[in-house]
Design goal:
580 residues, alpha+beta, single chain, eight-stranded mixed sheet, globular
Length: 580
């Protein structure tokens, strides 16, 4: 509504429905069971419809105990039998840095509030957003809570969570909404890739790394890793130096990479290893690696189709407004908003189809260096599960025993020539070794010394059972290059030991896989649900869907935060399970 001049001059006037609950973020308090273990995490902000509308950066820590405290008071003694027994004090530090990825239309005057245990509610007003990215609010808050350690408190931090309510305002002061959207549009001109788009994709991405190591029986009777020499014409990580006629073992490691995507993929165990498709090519035939873009093309096609459907909906709304003979001011504002969203859809489509360097989108090139032996280009595995039924990945939407990546054949790969190896030892959940006798391939290229102008390529295929999403089998492929040499002379062995004239080397090669379970929602869909409430819709059904979605998100978040806590304890040399 248009604010009258008298109301606008009133400093105590507040517009009706000026503030809106964006959502609630939950941080589980289990890290407080451990002294001086700080966990910094960014839980999602979940709205009433069970959708993720942003993230908030939070840190919690139980400060070290005061050595000067009186032990006689630590255990407490009350004459009243109903008085809770205290086992000392716990100083709990809570920090809140910022919230990001929020709906741009509701990021005016953002504030946050939370309540820790039996303390009074804490209100965090947001700082000035000048210079911050669109959809970002900064708090820079830190507070220490002094608590008596009782049975109720230990149950609270062991099983409970800290809820952070994030509120936003629809209007910026007394400006019209259309003016605030114009300012938002001007701010976003500096960034070619919307931050919200990158955040939505990161919610549905996880990067796995697969390493292959070949071990040979040395003169002392032990299996030792062979050398891998870096060659400029070999794109698969390097060349394994294999000695002719030796007994070998193949060791495979698969693990997620921390910081590359937020989707919590958990590797349960390696269920199968196979090797084969021996191929000899000339030295000038460069570029043989493990890269294949079949799933990346499917992902981009599905993304384009979703954007086209959204664009058709926008087109119908625009035509209905344009055809009006007598337009109101609200119609003009709505028309401007639809045009802005149309432009945003075009930008999001281009951002995914042709991703920029270091954008974090699927298939985006990276300017950052990779570890020695790692291939440069990551491979995308697309599960193609419709994200329309839920905003976040729900384990129940994934088919049990589904095979992901089984049909993605590399160039020069032949399934008939792949030999299954028996796994003899699981060194860990995601690390397995198996014996490999190269004679099973019946290939002269592996039995004779390799010529200097030739390159011998093979393919290693690994099947991994995921603990989450449960029941999903992922097939990962890695192309390797080998060089077979005869036993060195005494002088050659001496030169190899002292490293005379050898190129840069390592003892393994690897490849990265981007796991994408589904495509996210496009721009406007989530914000449209925040602004529009359909009264004709079944309220009970809508409520049930929201509750189910929230439960799925919290279940995933509990697992993700548990993993983050275990990694933090591991780096600190602490053992999990030793609670307060």
């Amino acid at each position: 509504k248009k604010v009258s001049s008298n109301m606008a001059n009133d400093p105590f006037y507040e517009m009706e429905k000026s503030h809106t609950l964006l959502g609630v973020a939950n941080l589980f308090l289990e890290p407080l069971n451990y002294q001086d273990i700080k966990l910094t995490y960014s839980p999602p902000i979940i709205n009433r419809q069970g959708q993720i509308v942003g993230h908030i950066s939070i840190g919690i820590r139980r400060l070290p105990e005061n050595d000067d405290s009186d032990d006689s008071e630590a255990w407490g003694s009350g004459s009243d039998i109903n008085e809770p027994v205290s086992f000392g004090k716990a100083l709990c530090e809570v920090t809140v840095q910022d919230a990001y990825g929020l709906p741009p239309a509701l990021t005016n005057f953002v504030f946050c509030q939370y309540k820790f245990y039996d303390h009074s509610e804490t209100l965090l007003p947001g700082h000035d957003v000048t210079g911050l990215p669109v959809g970002t609010a900064r708090f820079e808050h830190k507070h220490i809570f002094d608590n008596e350690i009782t049975e109720d408190f230990t149950r609270y931090i062991t099983n409970g969570s800290l809820a952070f309510e994030v509120w936003g305002h629809l209007s910026s002061g007394f400006e019209d909404r259309i003016n605030s959207r114009k300012q938002e549009k001007e701010k976003s001109k500096d960034s070619s890739i919307p931050h919200a788009l990158v955040q939505r994709w990161s919610e549905l991405m996880c990067t796995l790394q697969s390493w292959v190591e070949i071990r040979e029986l040395d003169d002392s009777g032990q299996y030792m890793p062979v050398e891998v020499h870096d060659r400029p014409d070999v794109a698969c990580g390097g060349v394994y130096q294999l000695r002719q006629g030796q007994s070998r073992r193949l060791v495979v490691t698969v693990a997620p990479i921390e910081g590359f995507g937020l989707y919590p993929v958990v590797c349960e165990r390696i269920t199968g290893i196979s090797i084969g498709s021996v191929c000899r090519v000339g030295k000038m035939h460069a570029g043989c690696d493990s890269y294949i873009d079949d799933d990346l093309k499917r992902l981009r096609t599905a993304w384009s189709e979703r954007l086209m459907r959204r664009r058709e909906m926008l087109g119908e709304k625009l035509h209905s407004i344009i055809d009006k003979t007598d337009k109101s001011k609200s119609d003009s504002e709505l028309q401007t908003m639809l045009v802005d969203e149309w432009v945003m859809l075009v930008n999001e489509r281009n951002a995914v189809l042709v991703p920029q360097v270091d954008s974090g989108l699927p298939g985006a090139p990276s300017s950052k260096g990779v570890p020695p032996g790692m291939e440069q280009r990551p491979i995308t595995l697309f599960l193609d599960k419709d994200a329309g039924t839920t905003n976040y990945m729900n384990p129940s939407t994934i088919e049990k025993d589904s095979q992901i990546g089984a049909n993605l054949l590399l160039p020069l790969e032949n399934n008939v020539l792949m030999k299954n190896l028996q796994i003899e030892h699981h060194e860990s959940k995601c690390r397995a070794s198996s014996s490999w006798d190269s004679s099973i391939h019946n290939s002269p290229d592996l039995n004779c010394q390799t010529a200097a102008q030739d390159r011998i390529y093979m393919i290693v295929k690994v099947s991994v059972l995921l603990g989450f999403p449960a029941g999903v089998q992922v097939t990962l492929r890695k192309r390797i290059c080998v060089y077979v040499y005869k036993k060195l002379s005494a002088f050659g062995s001496l030169m190899r030991k002292i490293g005379g004239g050898r190129p840069e080397q390592t003892n393994r090669t690897g490849v990265m896989y981007e796991i994408v379970p589904s495509i996210p929602k496009v721009a406007g869909e989530e914000e449209e649900q925040l602004d529009v409430e359909d009264e004709n819709e079944n309220v009970l059904e809508q409520y049930s869907q929201g509750i189910s979605s929230v439960e799925s998100i919290l279940e995933l978040e509990k697992m993700r935060q548990d993993i983050a806590l275990k990694e933090r304890l591991s780096t600190s040399g602490r053992a999990p399970g030793l609670n307060l």
